[in-house]
Amino acid sequence: MSDGELRRVVLSLLFVLIWAFSGGMDGGIEGFWPVWPIAGIAIGVVFAGVAAFGSGGGAPTESRIRSEMKRLSD
């Protein structure tokens, strides 16, 4: 598990614990406000996944690799 994944899990658990210890269990599941920050975290994960694995032009070609190597060496 990466640092980012661990951070998201811990933060989500923290929200749920705050909700539970502040009387959230008394009101039932209807007042489960941690769903909103957890949903925000999930949206961020989706955007990060699309940015990392989405249609970024496909696999790098030999010419793109060589041009990037040249750019980095200059």
Quick structural gist:
By secondary structure, the chain is mainly alpha-helical.
Structure overview:
This is DUF5668 domain-containing protein. Keywords: Membrane, Transmembrane, Transmembrane helix. The chain crosses the membrane at residues 9-29, 35-61. Residues 55-74 are annotated as: Disordered. It comes from Microbacterium limosum. By secondary structure, this protein is mainly alpha-helical. The protein has one domain (3-73). Helix content is 72%, strand content 0%. The protein has helices at residues 3-24, 35-53, 62-73. The longest helix is centred in the first third of the chain and has 22 residues, at 3-24. The two termini are 36 Å apart. The mean pLDDT is 88.
Main β-sheet, in a few words? none
Strand content: under 5%
Mean pLDDT: 88
Low-confidence stretches: none
What's the order of the H and E elements?
HHH
Query: Which overall shape is indicated by the principal axes computed on the Cα atoms?
Result: elongated
Q: Please, how many domains? A: 1
Number of strands: 0
User: Rg, please?
Assistant: 21 Å
End-to-end CA span: 36 Å
Number of helices: 3
Helix content: over 70%
Structural class: mainly alpha
